[in-house]
Every structure is written in C-alpha cells, then in structure tokens.
Amino acid sequence: MTQDHDSPDHSELSDVEARVRALETVLTQKGYVDPAALDVLIDTYQTKIGPRNGARVVARAWVDSDYRGRLLRDATGAIAELGYTGRQGEQMIAVQNTPGQHNVVVCTLCSCYPWPVLGLPPVWYKSAPYRSRVVRDRRGVLREFGVALPAGTVVRVWDSTAEVRYLVIPERPSGTEGFDEAALCALVTRDSMIGTGLARTPAPPG
Question: Is this structure's pTM higher than 0.70?
C-alpha cells in the first residue's frame, strides 16, 4: 500500500482529513509515528478487518447447520475456524434472529465492538444517544434505522462489555435458497450484524 504521508497537497481532502494529515505529518517529523507501521495498520483495517468478515460468518451459518450450531455454542471458536481472531474478538457470543425474536447490540458503558468481524465501530454506535435510548426505547430506535418489526416480535438488547462482544445472525432473506456463500455474503450488512438493520432482500430475477 502506498501512502504519501508527507505530501502538502490537501486540496482534495475535507477539513477533518486535512487536519488528520497535518497531525500525522507533525507526529512523523517528531519521530512519534512510523509511516510504514501506519500503512500496515491502515491496510489491515481497510482490507483484512471489517464487516466482510462477519458477512462470511453469517453466510456460512445460513448454509451450514452444523457450523451454525457451533457458532451458537462457541462463537469465538467457530469464528476462529474462518481465520478471524484477535483483539476485541477474544470472547464472542452469537445471537440468532428468528421470526419471534430480534436482537440488537449496544455497549452502554463505552463502545466495545467486535473488531475482527465488524471492523471499527460506526460513529452512531459510540454516541451517547444510541447507547442510552436503545435500552429504553428499542423499537423507536429501530424504526429510526428503518426497521419496523411485527408487534409480536420480542426485541432483545445485548449489552457488550470489556470481556464479551456480540454478533447478530440476521434472518436469511427469502428467495435465496439457491444462493452460494459468496452471493449470500453480499446480502449481509454491518447494521444487520448489530441488529439495527436487516439483511438485504435479493433483487428479483431480470
């Protein structure tokens, strides 16, 4: 990965990006930051860690009932089978959405989040309004995300901690019976694995 950390041309950067670039330049010049190490870190989060990993876990669970069973019993071990381990993913629990129960994840104390399968947390996940409101007004918050559930569906909120992270297995969309894992992965969104969204509905044929 090539990064021109010392380039003074910020013309195409937003104000925030320009400030970050300027800060990075100062820290590099003072010897506090190693540009090569920073490149490795950026590449890791852009290409190796992120929701694509969690989508693969979910897609495997959709097509392989044995794997789904292992995931629900020992999420940490089942996720590691696919090569996803590391910091913020040491103790994982998977919860499965069903027609009768919808799960949503929050971290009320800070912003604990399963980095190996979801990457870095979105800004709203870390915000105080989400962290406080989803506990007391779960259906209202879900409606704001565009998720309207039947009145009879139980909504359960799972509170992450410094020790435990959660991954929601969304319901598999109908009409995907012939889809392979790769096609199913494309239907799994980050929000559906937090519980603030649903898996995408496949486009109709033609």
Answer: yes
Ordered domains of the chain (ranges, CATH): 15-48 (no CATH), 51-194 (3.90.330.10)
Of 7, 112, 160, 174, the active-site residue reads: 112
Active site residue 185: no
Catalytic pick from 65, 111, 160, 185?
111
- Identify whether 110 is a catalytic site residue: yes
Q: Do the beta carbons of residue 199 and residue 192 sit within 8 Å?
A: yes
Within 6-150, residue ranges assigned H as helices are 15-29, 35-43, 51-63, 65-73, 75-81, 115-118, 123-126, 128-136, 138-144
For 89-117, the pLDDT digits (tens) are: 889 999 999 999 999 999 999 889 999 99
- The catalytically annotated residue of 107, 160, 185, 192 is 107
Catalytic-labelled residue, pool 7, 14, 110, 132:
110
pLDDT in tens, 3-46: 444 444 444 667 766 776 787 788 788 787 787 766 655 555 55
Would you call 111 a catalytic residue per the annotation?
yes
